């Protein structure tokens, strides 16, 4: 399976600089032989503008959340259909920062995944254990419950494994930890979805950088990376994309 590199810009990006960033990323990717699939997920305010800028580049547009209902009285929220309307094809759901900042529960994430798929978007559902859960040896249980609770029946999207303690720390999880958790997640997906669970792409996220990407991406079951901080500049994002080409 061709690898996928997803840039999650989080709450960063203003109009002018963002246009320059996606232009530089698109040029860099265009110069690579058989590049991986690249998805850029800017904040809502930039989606329409960057969607236009990315047309014809082969780079996909993603968003960072959607509401679980199609429309209605939900002040400040954005529906999946609104995202599709401006050219969005992927949506990150259940990121640990949304679970933390907005109290999102597995059940809501599951409803959002259903809404996203209904609007024709591919959900990227995030799971990951906290530092406490890892320290107490509960991380498999925690991830198992998140998978069970956050993925709807018939799920055909993407799962991102992002250990909360690795996000923004500057140090990714060790290769051994990633390999162990990837194998566990794959087994859970197969248990929940049968044969279909074998083909669900699993991304790793948490302090991925250009140096470590070359070690992380070849790990069994890793189908790509979900990149935060390093996706904010072309000169830190492109080496990660390149590491996926060189596999
Ligand atoms: O949360 C992440 C991507 O969704 C990871 O962020 P960092 O790459 O900044 O650790």
TrEMBL record:
<comment type="pathway">
    <text>Carbohydrate biosynthesis; gluconeogenesis.</text>
</comment>
<keyword id="KW-0963">Cytoplasm</keyword>
<feature type="binding site">
    <location>
        <position position="207"/>
    </location>
    <ligand>
        <name>substrate</name>
    </ligand>
</feature>
<feature type="binding site">
    <location>
        <begin position="228"/>
        <end position="229"/>
    </location>
    <ligand>
        <name>substrate</name>
    </ligand>
</feature>
<feature type="binding site">
    <location>
        <position position="168"/>
    </location>
    <ligand>
        <name>substrate</name>
    </ligand>
</feature>
<comment type="pathway">
    <text>Carbohydrate metabolism; erythritol degradation.</text>
</comment>
<comment type="subunit">
    <text>Homodimer.</text>
</comment>
<feature type="active site" description="Electrophile">
    <location>
        <position position="95"/>
    </location>
</feature>
<dbReference type="InterPro" id="IPR020861">
    <property type="entry name" value="Triosephosphate_isomerase_AS"/>
</dbReference>
<dbReference type="GO" id="GO:0006094">
    <property type="term" value="P:gluconeogenesis"/>
</dbReference>
<dbReference type="InterPro" id="IPR035990">
    <property type="entry name" value="TIM_sf"/>
</dbReference>
<dbReference type="GO" id="GO:0006096">
    <property type="term" value="P:glycolytic process"/>
</dbReference>
<keyword id="KW-0324">Glycolysis</keyword>
<dbReference type="InterPro" id="IPR000652">
    <property type="entry name" value="Triosephosphate_isomerase"/>
</dbReference>
<dbReference type="GO" id="GO:0019563">
    <property type="term" value="P:glycerol catabolic process"/>
</dbReference>
<feature type="active site" description="Proton acceptor">
    <location>
        <position position="162"/>
    </location>
</feature>
<comment type="similarity">
    <text>Belongs to the triosephosphate isomerase family.</text>
</comment>
<dbReference type="InterPro" id="IPR022896">
    <property type="entry name" value="TrioseP_Isoase_bac/euk"/>
</dbReference>
<comment type="function">
    <text>Involved in the gluconeogenesis. Catalyzes stereospecifically the conversion of dihydroxyacetone phosphate (DHAP) to D-glyceraldehyde-3-phosphate (G3P).</text>
</comment>
<keyword id="KW-0413">Isomerase</keyword>
<dbReference type="InterPro" id="IPR013785">
    <property type="entry name" value="Aldolase_TIM"/>
</dbReference>
<dbReference type="Pfam" id="PF00121">
    <property type="entry name" value="TIM"/>
</dbReference>
<protein>
    <recommendedName>
        <fullName>Triosephosphate isomerase</fullName>
        <ecNumber>5.3.1.1</ecNumber>
    </recommendedName>
</protein>
<feature type="binding site">
    <location>
        <begin position="8"/>
        <end position="10"/>
    </location>
    <ligand>
        <name>substrate</name>
    </ligand>
</feature>
<dbReference type="GO" id="GO:0005829">
    <property type="term" value="C:cytosol"/>
</dbReference>
<dbReference type="GO" id="GO:0004807">
    <property type="term" value="F:triose-phosphate isomerase activity"/>
</dbReference>
<keyword id="KW-0312">Gluconeogenesis</keyword>
<dbReference type="GO" id="GO:0046166">
    <property type="term" value="P:glyceraldehyde-3-phosphate biosynthetic process"/>
</dbReference>
């Amino acid at each position: 399976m061709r690898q996928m590199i997803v840039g999650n810009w989080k709450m960063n990006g203003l109009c002018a600089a963002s246009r320059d960033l996606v232009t530089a990323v698109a040029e860099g990717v265009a110069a690579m032989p058989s590049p991986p699939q690249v998805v850029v997920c800017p904040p809502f305010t930039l989606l329409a503008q960057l969607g236009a800028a990315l047309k014809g580049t082969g780079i996909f547009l993603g968003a960072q959340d959607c509401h679980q209902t199609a429309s209605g009285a939900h002040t400040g929220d954005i529906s999946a259909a609104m995202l599709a309307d401006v050219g969005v094809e992927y949506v990150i759901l259940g990121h640990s920062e949304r679970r933390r900042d907005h109290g999102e529960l597995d059940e809501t994430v599951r409803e959002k995944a259903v809404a996203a798929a209904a609007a024709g978007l591919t959900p990227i559902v995030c799971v990951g254990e906290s530092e406490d859960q890892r320290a107490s040896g509960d991380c498999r249980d925690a991830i198992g419950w998140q998978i069970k609770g956050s993925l709807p029946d018939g799920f055909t999207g993407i799962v991102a494994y992002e250990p909360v303690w690795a996000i923004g720390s500057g140090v990714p999880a060790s290769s051994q930890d990633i390999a162990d958790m990837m194998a566990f997640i794959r087994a859970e997906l197969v248990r929940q979805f049968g044969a279909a669970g074998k083909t669900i792409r699993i991304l790793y996220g948490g302090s991925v950088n250009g140096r470590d990407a070359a070690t992380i991406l070849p790990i069994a079951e890793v189908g790509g990376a979900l990149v935060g901080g390093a996706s904010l500049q072309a000169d830190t994002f492109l080496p990660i994309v390149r590491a996926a080409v060189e596999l």
